[in-house]
Amino acid sequence: MAFSMHSHSGQFCPGHAKDELEDIVQTAISKGMQTFGLTEHMPRDNDKDRYPEEESLAPLKPRHGNFVKEAVRLRMKYADKINILIGFEGEWIRPSYKHLILEMASNPNIDYFIGSIHHVHEIPIDYDTALYVKARDAAGGTDERLFEDYFDSQYGMLKALEPKVVGHLDLIRLLSDDPNRDLKEMKGVWERVVRNLRLIVEQGGLIELNTSALRKGLNEPYPTRSVCEEYLKLGGKLTLGDDSHGIAHVGTNFGRAWEYLESLGVKELFLLESDGIKVQDKKTVRIRSVTLADVKASFKG
Description:
Number of strands: 11
Pathway: Amino-acid biosynthesis; L-histidine biosynthesis; L-histidine from 5-phospho-alpha-D-ribose 1-diphosphate: step 8/9
Structural class: alpha/beta
Distance between the termini: 13 Å
Shape: globular
Helix content: 25-40%
Family: Belongs to the PHP hydrolase family. HisK subfamily.
Order of helices and strands: EHEHEHEEEHHEHEHHEHEEH
GO molecular function: histidinol-phosphatase activity
CATH architecture: Alpha-Beta Barrel
InterPro entries: Histidinol_P_phosphatase_HisJ, PHP_dom, Pol/histidinol_Pase-like
CATH class: Alpha Beta
C-alpha cells in the first residue's frame, strides 16, 4: 500500500506551496496512495518568527483551524478511497514552542504531528542561502558548528515532544557548502546524530525517509546513507514522506526511494493508522508495518 506521511498545500500554506488541498488528495488517490498524511505547517506565534514575505502572523492561527475543518471534510468524503491522516508539521524555533505544539496536538481531530527543525539560533536554515549563512555565522562561522547546534536543537525537541514522526532529520545539509558530505566526517556532528537516533528508537518514533531532498538536487533523500545505516542498526523504523508542496510533488522520486531503500536492505516500512474520528476522546494512533514490495506494487507513479 503506497503512502506518504508528509504533505502541504497552497490553500493553507500560500506562498510556500501550491494547489488546493482537495486537488492534492485526488492526486494522491490517482497515484495509488492508500494512506496520505495532511501536515500543513503549524502557525507561529511570535512576530519575530515571520518569514521575509510575511507582513503579519495574524492569519496563521485561523488558517490552521480552517485547515483542520477542511481535512476532516475530505477524510469523510474520500473515506472509501483513501485513509487520510490529519496532522501538522511542528516548528521548534525555541523551547517555548513546546506548549503551542502540544496544545495543537491535543485537538481530537489531530492524529499526529511531525517533529521538525527549520530554525537554528531562531534563524531559518532552509529558506535561502542568505539566511543559512546568517545562522552559520551565529553558530561560529562553519557548517560543522551549525550542524552541531542543529542536532542539539533537535535533541531538545525530541526530549520535549516525543514526536511519532521525525521529519527530514538532516535537513541542515540542504544549503551547506557540501550537502552530500558524509556526516561521519565531522566527529562532533556524528556523535550528536547517533545520540538523537538512539533517543528516537527509545521513544518508539519513526524517522521519515523524505524524498524532497532528491527534487532539490541532493544525491540522497533525508536522511543520508550513513544516518540510515546507523538508525537501522539500532533497530529504528523508517516511514515515508514526499513532503509534497503541490500536486506536482505527490509521490515525486518514489522510484529512486525504492532503489535507495533496497540498497540499505530495507524490506519493511512503517506508517501510522488511526481508529477513526472521535469528537470527545482522543483517537488511538498505532504504528503499522507494510512491506516495501506492497508499497511499490500499489504506487502508480
